[in-house]
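WARN no homologs supplied; continuing
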Amino acid sequence: MSLSHALRRQLGGFIALILAVAGIAAWLFAVDEGRWVGRATTRPETLNLETVEQGNLPVNQFVSLRNHWAVYREHVATFRLDAVSGEGQRIETLYYPVISDMNPYLLELAGLSRAFGGIDNIPADEWPRIERMGVLIRTDSVQSLENVPPLIEFPDGLFGTVLHAETDLPRDERELLSERWPEIDLSRVVIVNAGHRPGNVWSMLAYGGLGLISWGLAILLAWRLLRSPRSSQSAGAQGGPGALQAQHSDGLSARSPLETGVPSPKGQKTPRESDERPLSYAEALGRYAPQNNVPSSPRLADSQPAKGATPLSGIRAQRDD
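OK structure emitted
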């Protein structure tokens, strides 16, 4: 096998492997996009916090929030172990609850604020605990704890996709939320992935088609590699043109000038002319006379020619004397 042919086979196998991996990745994206088909609309549905806090979960998986209170004091975060920002350890994911105006937590906090002369004067051990949580916000836009508001705010509206704690969250994040709020059933909490939009059927079809094309090209390339000869000996064994040409040239070179019809150079004798002696008349007569078939039961009368008949041979015997 030549070096260039071996390199071409290795390069072709590497390209086929890349196409196969790209096809699998495209199909995974298609599955991720397809899980939203039939579960979310193209426009977000406004979420009613009071209804959700009473246990009524939304059907549409693409929602938006308008009037809500963000309780940043009750946040929980996961951090990146290999990334540190200028303001401290970098946050990977931040969770914080949002409540409505009629949530018992907000009503109790308003009473404590009046009692202590402001929300900033409430002691840490006097802060109420959230016992009714309907919506939990998940965001990756906050980089460090310095950017997290300290207590509670009334922010602008937001939108996002709905995640389910048991199926959509990583195991470490699910355990972290259970430890932070052990008294709350997370399966009854709407987790909104802030800023994310759901997939659609067109994205699913595009990724699926890309995966089919990648796998088709990978199979075609692998088929061509398997059909190509693996060594130069296999080509010679199959009777390739090169082998036939070499054999033909060897056969021609082994023939004598008399067999090939090529005249020998002037003054040079052929092997027949140089090795053989001149034939006598009798030897020539025996060599070049036509051989007749001998009958099964020869008779002397049949073997001799009739009078006046022309002999079969064109050469007549003559006596020397």
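Confidence is low (pLDDT under 50) at residues 231-238, 240-244, 246-260, 296-303.
OK
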